[in-house]
Design brief:
The complex is a heterodimer of chains A (124) and B (336). Chain A is α+β, with helices and mostly antiparallel strands and 124 residues long. Helices cover 27% and strands 39% of the residues of chain A. Chain A has helices at residues 3-31, 86-89, and strands at residues 33-39, 42-49, 55-60, 65-71, 74-80, 99-102, 107-112, 121-123. The longest helix of chain A has 29 residues, at 3-31. Chain B is of the alpha+beta class and 336 residues long. Among the domains of chain B are: 74-163, T-fold, CATH 1.10.3980.10; 209-331, ApbE-like domains (T-fold, Roll), CATH 3.10.520. In chain B, strands 1-2-6-7-10-13-14-15 form an eight-stranded antiparallel β-sheet, covered by helices on one side. Chain B has a three-stranded antiparallel β-sheet with strand order 3-5-4, with helices on one face. Chain B has a three-stranded antiparallel β-sheet with strand order 8-9-16, with no helix packed on it. The longest helix of chain B has 26 residues, at 2-27. The chains are: A alpha+beta (124), B alpha+beta (336).
Chain lengths: 124, 336
C-alpha cells in the first residue's frame, strides 16, 4: 500500500465519521422541542422542553420583565411588568409553532421543534 | 498486491457510503435566516430560506422599518402623525409610499362600502383604545365621533394629503401590515427568493412551496389557548385574521373589542373572528377587518367579489368557510 493510498483512506475515513456525526446530530435535534426566549428581538435563552422540565425564570428587556413557568411540558407567564397583562391572560402553550408575546415588554417565548404535524405559523 | 486492491475497494465503498449520507444531509433543510422585530405596534417574525437568505433578510427588515416610520401614528416624525395634526388646517407633503397606502385604504373603504374605514381613529379614541384608558362613551360622544369618520374627506393631490375636518385622523393599522407584506413579496420576487414565511402581527405572507408541499397555518382559537384549526395552503398566499380577542375590555360581562363598527360607532360583536386567504396582502388585512364588522352571512357573500377565501368563527364557536377552503381546513375537534 502506497503513501497516497493511505492518505486517501484516512481522508475518506475522516469524512465518513464527520458525515455520520452530522447526520446523527441533525436527526436528534429534530426530535426535540425547545423553548426559545427572545428579548428585544434577540435570543437570550433556549430551554429544552419535555414533560419533566420544571423551570421558573425571569426575562428582562429594555422595557421591563416577565416571569415564566415551565411545567408538565407546557409554558406560561406568571408575572409581568406590563400594563395590560395580556401575556399572562394568554395562558399555557405547549405545541411547536405556538408562542406567547408580551408586546409592551418586547419579550417573546416560542416553542420550536420538528414534529410530524408541526404548524408553520399562527394567524391571529 | 491483493492487500492493496482490498484497501482500494474498501476506500471506494466508504466513498459511496459518504456520498449517500451527504445527499441525505443536503436533503435535510438548511435552517432559515430569521429575525424578530417590533414594528407597527406588533411583533414581526421573519424566516427566509434559500441561498441568498441573509441578503434578502436585510432588505426585508429595511422595508418594514421604512414603512413603519411613515405610518406610526404615535411617532411625531411619521407622515400619519403630521397629516392628523394638520387635519382641517392644511395639506401635508408625505412620502410616495404613504400616499400609496392611503390610496389602497380608500380603495378598500369604497369597495367595502365603508366597513373598512381608515378614519376610524376618533371612535377608537373615545372607547379608550388609543390610550388604553378603556371606557364606554356617551351617545353624544359617539355621534360626534361618527361625524369625523367620512373617508371621502381624505384629499390626495400628488404627494400631499389633507383631511378636511379638524379632528379627523387616519389610522392605517388595518391595512399597513398587509401592504407591507405586498412590498416584501416584491422584494422576494426581485431577489429570486426561494421560500419565506413572514408573520407580521398575525398577518402572514407565505412565499414559495415548503418541503411538505403545503404550509400549515394554525388559526387562533378565539376563546381558548391554542388553535381552533389548521389551514393547509399551497404556494404563495397572504393570510390575515381579525378577532375580538386581541384588544378588548369587559364591562358588566360584555366584551368590547378594538374593532369598531363605523356604521354605528360601537365595537363590532357579530362574530368572534374571520380569517382571509388572498393573493394581495393589503386586501387580506383590510378585508378581515371589514368582514369582522359586517359578520358571517354578508362576508360569505362578498368572497367572490374580492376573489378571496375566508374562515369565519361565529359567536357560538362554529366554524364556517367557503367551498374553496373546505378541504384545506382541518379542525382540532371536528366541530363545524
Amino acid at each position: 500500500m502506497e503513501k497516497g493510498d493511505k492518505l486517501l483512506a484516512l481522508i475518506l475515513v475522516v469524512i465518513f465519521i464527520f458525515a455520520i456525526g452530522q447526520y446523527t446530530f441533525v436527526s436528534i435535534s429534530k426530535v426535540k422541542r425547545t423553548i426559545i426566549i427572545r428579548s428585544d428581538g434577540e435570543i437570550v435563552e433556549q430551554i429544552p422542553l419535555n414533560e419533566t422540565t420544571e423551570v421558573i425564570t425571569t426575562i428582562k428587556s429594555k422595557e421591563g420583565a416577565v416571569t415564566m413557568q415551565v411545567k408538565n411540558g407546557k409554558v406560561h407567564i406568571i408575572e409581568s411588568t406590563c400594563h395590560d397583562k395580556l401575556c399572562i391572560k394568554q395562558g399555557w402553550i405547549s405545541k411547536t409553532g405556538e408562542s406567547i408575546v408580551c408586546l409592551p415588554n418586547r419579550i417573546s417565548i416560542s416553542i420550536t421543534g420538528e414534529e410530524k404535524n408541526e404548524i408553520d405559523s399562527i394567524t391571529y | 498486491m491483493n492487500k492493496k486492491r482490498n484497501i482500494v475497494t474498501i476506500a471506494g465503498w466508504i466513498f459511496v457510503v459518504c456520498l449517500i449520507i451527504f445527499s441525505f444531509i443536503n436533503k435535510a433543510e438548511k435552517p432559515p435566516a430569521t429575525a424578530e422585530l417590533y414594528a407597527m405596534d406588533t411583533i414581526v417574525n421573519i424566516k427566509i430560506y434559500g441561498d441568498n437568505k441573509e441578503t434578502i433578510l436585510k432588505e426585508v427588515i429595511k422595508k418594514i422599518e421604512e414603512i413603519n416610520s411613515y405610518v406610526d401614528s404615535f411617532s411625531p416624525n411619521s407622515d400619519i402623525y403630521k397629516i392628523n395634526k394638520n387635519s382641517g388646517i392644511k395639506n401635508v407633503t408625505v412620502h410616495p409610499e404613504t400616499v400609496a397606502i392611503i390610496e389602497k385604504a380608500m380603495e378598500l373603504a369604497h369597495n367595502t362600502n365603508g366597513a373598512f374605514n381608515p378614519l376610524i381613529t376618533p371612535l377608537s379614541q373615545i372607547w379608550g383604545f388609543r390610550d388604553k384608558n378603556y371606557r364606554i362613551p356617551s351617545e353624544e360622544e359617539i355621534k360626534d365621533a361618527l361625524n369625523l369618520t367620512n373617508y371621502n374627506d381624505i384629499v390626495i393631490s400628488k404627494n400631499t394629503v389633507f383631511l378636511k375636518k379638524e379632528g379627523e385622523a387616519l389610522d392605517l393599522g388595518g391595512i399597513a401590515k398587509g401592504y407591507t407584506l405586498d412590498c416584501l413579496k416584491e422584494i422576494l420576487d426581485k431577489m429570486d427568493g426561494e421560500r419565506a414565511l413572514i408573520n407580521n402581527g398575525g398577518n402572514i405572507l407565505l412565499y414559495g412551496t415548503p418541503p411538505g408541499k403545503q404550509w400549515k397555518i394554525g388559526i387562533k382559537n378565539p376563546r381558548e389557548d391554542g388553535i381552533i384549526g389548521t389551514l393547509n395552503i399551497e404556494g404563495t398566499k397572504f393570510i390575515s385574521t381579525s378577532g375580538d380577542y386581541e384588544r378588548f375590555f369587559t364591562k358588566d360581562n360584555k366584551r368590547y373589542c378594538h374593532l369598531i363598527n363605523p356604521f354605528n360607532g360601537y365595537p363590532a360583536d357579530k362574530i368572534f373572528s374571520v380569517t382571509v386567504v388572498s393573493d394581495k396582502g393589503y386586501y387580506g388585512d383590510a378585508l378581515s377587518t371589514a368582514f369582522f364588522i359586517i359578520g358571517k352571512n354578508e362576508a360569505l357573500q362578498d368572497v367572490k367579489k374580492f376573489d378571496v377565501d375566508i374562515v369565519v368563527i361565529d359567536s357560538d364557536l362554529n366554524v364556517f368557510c367557503g367551498e374553496e377552503l373546505k378541504d384545506s381546513l382541518i379542525l382540532e375537534n371536528g366541530k363545524g
